[in-house]
Specification:
elongated; single chain
């Protein structure tokens, strides 16, 4: 019970600089560009089970334990730094077809400061002796500095940084617009894993209808080829340069199982 449970996460602030330019082609229009990203690492953590178990016979016995390795965000200093580069392009044809291609994190580095990591471990037990219950503290290591000479801490550190950068993904899409109807399709392939897990591959399709100049109605479907289907509906309103968008998704399985609602506002010239 609880064996193998783990979670990894990070927080940071990113400054992005983007540049694009059109290229001359015989038919249609082509534009290519790139985005250079600088990420200031605020913190990273890894939490793992540390021996949780439950026994009901012949006598009740339970052990609850967990361990965490995390950046000390209270020190007010930088806990990490990284650089990334995205590249992509868009090709429009006079027929209304548009092709898009992106490589996210084609180049990326991310390093975290081991000197700023702190380790915590807590393990408690509850056992039945006759008709009485006894509780005990097996381990209570509270916020100690990370020690790479400790085998348990080193294993937790290595599992956290096994994929210490950001995932590299390749995305391709095609869009066709005719009148007030737009149909899109896309594919997303992960080439390299990162700090936070994500689907290895995704294929999606959707449509948008604009019955009025200010109103858009959208619907879509996506699959990760692992039994998980995501259905989506949404809409948007446009008032001059101001846009309001909303979307609702339903996923049948996996880490994102359930409903998700997103809303946003943007200002575009």
């Amino acid at each position: 019970m609880g064996k193998g449970s783990a979670a990894t996460g990070w927080a940071g602030a990113t400054l992005a600089l983007a540049y694009g330019r059109p290229l001359t082609v015989p038919i249609g229009t082509l534009a290519v560009g790139g985005t250079l990203k600088f990420t200031q690492g605020i913190g990273v953590f890894r939490a793992e089970d540390a021996g949780t178990s439950l026994q009901s016979t012949p006598n009740f016995a339970a052990v609850a334990g967990g361990q965490v390795l995390a950046s000390d965000v209270s020190n007010g200093s930088s806990n990490g730094f990284g650089v990334g580069l995205d590249v992509g392009g868009i090709y429009d044809l006079p027929s209304g077809l548009r092709f898009g291609f992106t490589i996210e994190n084609l180049v990326n580095t991310m390093s975290w400061k081991d000197a700023n990591l702190i380790y915590s471990r807590k393990i408690y037990s509850l056992t039945q002796v006759g008709d009485q219950f006894q509780d005990a503290t097996i381990a209570n290591d509270s916020s100690v500095a990370y020690n790479p000479a400790n085998a348990t801490q080193k294993a937790l550190h290595d599992s956290m940084f096994a994929h210490g950068t950001f995932p590299t993904r390749v995305r391709g899409s095609v869009r066709y617009t005719s009148g007030m109807v737009t149909v899109v399709g896309g594919a997303d392939l992960r080439l390299k894993s990162g700090l936070v897990s994500s689907d290895a591959q995704i294929i999606s399709a959707g449509a948008e209808v604009v019955p009025l100049g200010i109103l858009a109605i959208r619907a879509g479907l996506a699959s990760n080829f692992e039994g998980g289907l995501t259905y989506a509906v949404g809409g948007g309103l446009k008032f001059g340069p101001v846009r309001f968008d909303t979307g609702l998704t339903s996923t049948s399985s996996g880490d994102r199982k359930g409903f998700q609602l997103a809303m946003g506002m943007s200002i575009m010239n």
